[in-house]
Each structure stands twice: as C-alpha cells, then as structure tokens.
Amino acid sequence: MSAGRWAVGGGAVAVLVATGAYVMWPAADVDTRLWDQVRPVIEARLASDARGSGYGETVPALKARWFCRAEALGLQQHGGDVRADVTTLCVEYGVHDDSLVECSAGQVPQVVRLERDDAAAGGYRVVSREEAPDGAGNARWTRTHFGVVGASLAQDSMSSGALEAEARTHFGLPAGAAVVDC
C-alpha cells in the first residue's frame, strides 16, 4: 500500500436504470458462514501488510498501529480455495494524551485468495492479494475484477466507526475519546 493510496473517498452508490430512476444495489449474496471464517484472516493479513507504511509509525510516542476492516463484494469457494472480492479500509491510529490520533488511512478494492489450512488460525490462510492500481488504471481494474455493480459498490465509503472503537479499546481510551489528526 503506497502513500498515494491513503485517501478515503466514495459516496452513495446509485445506478441509473433504463427508467431514469436511481436504485441502490444490494451487496452480492455472500455465504455468511464462510465469510465469518475468512474475514478475520483477511483483516489480520491486511493489518500485517500495512505495517511500516504509515506516518504514525515514524513517531514512536504515538504507539501507532494499523486497524483494518474488509467488506465482501463477492465470495467464491472451490474445494478448499476461496476467492474474496472485497473492499478494504485500513486506518493507522495512535494515542496522545486522552485522544485517538488518526495518522493514515486508505480504502482499496482487492481480490484476496485463500486456501484451506487446518493448521492456520481460522482454518484458512491468505495465499495472494491483488489490489487496484493507483491512478488512471484503478477504475478499469475494479470493473474488470468485480463487474459494473461490484465496481460501483467498491466506491462506497466504508465507515471507520468500528475501527475507531477497536482502536480506543486497544489503547485503553474511553468510548467517547476524541479523534484528532496526526
């Protein structure tokens, strides 16, 4: 994840249909049992891969670390192999005084491939991650990998609320602790 990727964008996803009305498309049907198994594995890998790429980590006093969330756009299983089309949000938080400090963040669509590994936590391990490139190729890559509807859904802004709550708990801050910029 490069520094140029760390900008959260999006907005509500609406698709113009032939009648001229805007319609919200529901998320793809996802096997919730399988998603519950692979999601924590994906999120742990995202946080691990983000280490070393944020500004907060250059300021030791902040004790910064990455918190990541993935939302499924599509999920396919073939035997012990899983392909997860996801949109991901990773935020680097630190702590200063009684405030949560947000240092870096990025929302990126990705294709994550996993395979069954009974020795691994959760029973799966990530074998590859492919993400949309920076710049002009981003929209084309996302459409090619997720289709038109999935590409539209991937542009929705993900809420950082759950990540903020997780970070507050991690740093021992109260639930209402302010979030400030780095």
Describe this structure in a few short sentences.
The protein is of the alpha+beta class and 182 residues long. The chain has helices at 32-50, 137-154, 161-171, and strands at residues 15-16, 22-23, 65-78, 81-96, 99-116, 124-131, 179-181.
Q: What characteristic shape results from the CA principal axes?
A: globular
Percentage of residues in strands: 25-35%
Tell me roughly what share of residues is in helical segments: 25-40%
Q: What's the N-to-C terminus distance? A: 19 Å
Low-confidence stretches: 1-26
Number of helices: 3
User: What's the β-strand tally?
Assistant: 7
Q: Report the sheet with the most strands, covering strand number, pairing sense and barrel closure.
A: 5 strands, mixed
pLDDT averaged residue by residue = 81
Structural class: alpha+beta
Keywords: Membrane, Transmembrane, Transmembrane helix
Transmembrane segments: 6-25
Provide a descriptive summary of the structure in words:
This protein is an alpha+beta fold and 182 residues long. 26% of the residues lie in helices and 35% in strands. It is built from three helices and seven strands; from the N terminus they run ββαββββααβ. The chain has helices spanning 32-50, 137-154, 161-171; strands at 15-16, 22-23, 65-78, 81-96, 99-116, 124-131, 179-181. The strands form two sheets. Strands 3, 4, 5, 6 and 7 form a five-stranded mixed beta sheet that branches. A two-stranded antiparallel ribbon has the order 1-2. The two termini are 19 Å apart.
